[in-house]
Amino acid sequence: MTSDARQPSGNGPIPAGVTLHGDSHGVILSPAALGFVADLERAHRSRRRELLAAREQRQARFDAGDLPDFLAETQSVRDGDWRIASTPKDLTDRRVEITGPVDRKMVINALNSGARVFMADFEDSCSPTWDNLIEGQQNLMDAVRREIDFVHPDTGKAYALNEEVATLMVRPRGWHLVENHLHVDGQPVSASIFDFALYLWHNAHELRRQGSGPYFYLPKLESHLEARLWEDVFVQAQEALELPKGTIKVTVLIETLPAAFEMDEILFELRNHIVGLNCGRWDYIFSFIKTTRNHADCVMPDRGSVGMDRRFLRGYSQLLVETCHRRGAHAMGGMAAQIPIRGDDEANALAMAKVTADKRREVENGHDGTWVAHPGLMPLAFQEFDAGMPSPNQINLPRDPSGIVREDLLSVPVGTISMAGVRSNLSVGLRYMAAWLCGNGCVPIDHLMEDAATAEISRSQLWQWRRHEAQTVEGLTVDSDLLRTELAQTLADLRADLGDIAYTRGRFGLAGELFEGQILAKEMPAFLTLEAYEHLAN
């Protein structure tokens, strides 16, 4: 991180109490925009910190033997007869959504992809270097105004928007993260507020002029009180920008185990702004491991064996559909991590069959849409949702209740732990960490699109297996010595494959140090990238 404070471009002085530790990047960081960020930060900083402290207290109870449950104090909300506010026309049909980072070519290709929605991601698929964040904001600002283009520096290929493009949604970073390049009153700002406020400031009125609006995905919520904080941010932001009440519309990712028990409550807190919930399945698996980390009877088998057919994932998905539809909200399915495999027709056919089965299961279970990470998967997703959902959504389609209960959500999948699983987790975790440190947050690894969520599964599994001295099917104990040995071998194999120069440039040595510290730590670090954030290039 740079330490020098820079004057932002634009008219007027930098707002009092605001300090910029990075290049100003043109209009994005104008004094007025920075003032807007600062106002929101000052108003909500204390509550954000209180809620993060509450997370730690809740996790301490789980570590001591408790497990999540539906809240007694909010029973009236779950029993109440209420529905969310109306959904905008351009979010009525969301059958296939594509996600990806905010680099310029990706933004153009995703908007042109034919998907109903593009979720531009400042979170799990974005390595939060300063350039990535600010250039990403500029890319979205240009895209909203249809002024975005790109010429590939190597091929000379030109990219521009089609006449028809996907509806744009933006995912800011989670409440637990800060943005070190911008300080307000001597302290770094919330990364959530930073990402949200800059996009809203520059684009809300233009989006409304075009008949759309500022739409967001909200990640990593762990309670309805964290949703209430977002609600208060929205109210203040709309008033400050003179936007009509309810202009901001959001979908919340249910990707933590505690949040799965508060879906009604989250919808209720955000009822004037929310349009749906999403099954963030990969982060959800990670959260299940993290939440139950001290419970010896909750050890998860090999990552590759944990699919959506498992009871805890099937139950969570069904409960989300039922909860959303009872309240008039969209129930969005999860991400297909597979990507097309070139040069191996048999392997590609198997991967595509998995995607087809996954999307068929989602539409048959009542989901109103789904996610893909690669344009090549969209025809399969559309095929299944067009066949199973001829209407724009399934919100008002009657279905028999599934009767999902607490035990369904807490059911630990049965399976084996193998040395192949250990080595796969090490390889994925190391390669992803190295890519992230180099500024790339979305990486194809072993024919899967890996982001921070999937890498977190690998990292947390290794920690959990070591913590409980899990036994592999080969008869080995997963302990610190075994992980150190296998980690060293994985790094040696990577160096041999890549060569010394690429290995060094790829920051694999640092990635190995950080990853080893994560999986051997006495207490599981909350998130993979928190320590690594201090080592980003800018």
Topology:
Layout (H helix, E strand, L loop, with lengths): L17 E3 L10 H33 L11 H5 L16 E6 L2 H9 L4 E5 L8 H15 L4 E3 L6 E3 L6 E5 L6 E7 L2 E4 H19 L5 E4 L5 H17 L8 E6 L2 H4 L2 H7 L4 E6 L1 H11 L19 H17 L2 E7 L8 H21 L3 E4 L5 H11 L17 H4 L9 H19 L5 E3 L2 E3 L1 H16 L12 H19 L1 H6 L2 H13 L8 H4 L6
Features:
Malate Synthase G, Chain: A, Domain 4, 2 domains, alpha/beta, 3-stranded antiparallel sheet, 19 helices, single chain, TIM Barrel, 8-stranded parallel sheet, 538 residues
Number of strands: 15
- Widest sheet, order of strands: 6-3-2-13-12-11-10-9
CATH class of the largest domain: Alpha Beta
Arithmetic mean pLDDT = 94
Computed structural class:
alpha/beta
Shape designation: globular
Shape-level CATH architecture of the largest domain: Alpha-Beta Barrel
Q: Give the N-to-C terminal Cα separation.
A: 5 Å
Number of domains: 2
Largest sheet: 8 strands, parallel
Please indicate the percent range of residues in DSSP E strands (runs of 2 or more): 5-15%
User: Helix share of residues?
Assistant: 40-55%
Briefly note the CATH topology name of the largest domain: TIM Barrel
Unreliable segments of 5+ consecutive residues:
1-9
**What would you call the quaternary organization?**
single chain
In DSSP terms (H or I, runs of 4 or more residues), the helix count works out at: 19
CA gyration radius, whole angstroms:
22 Å
Name given to the CATH homologous superfamily of the largest domain? Malate synthase, domain 3
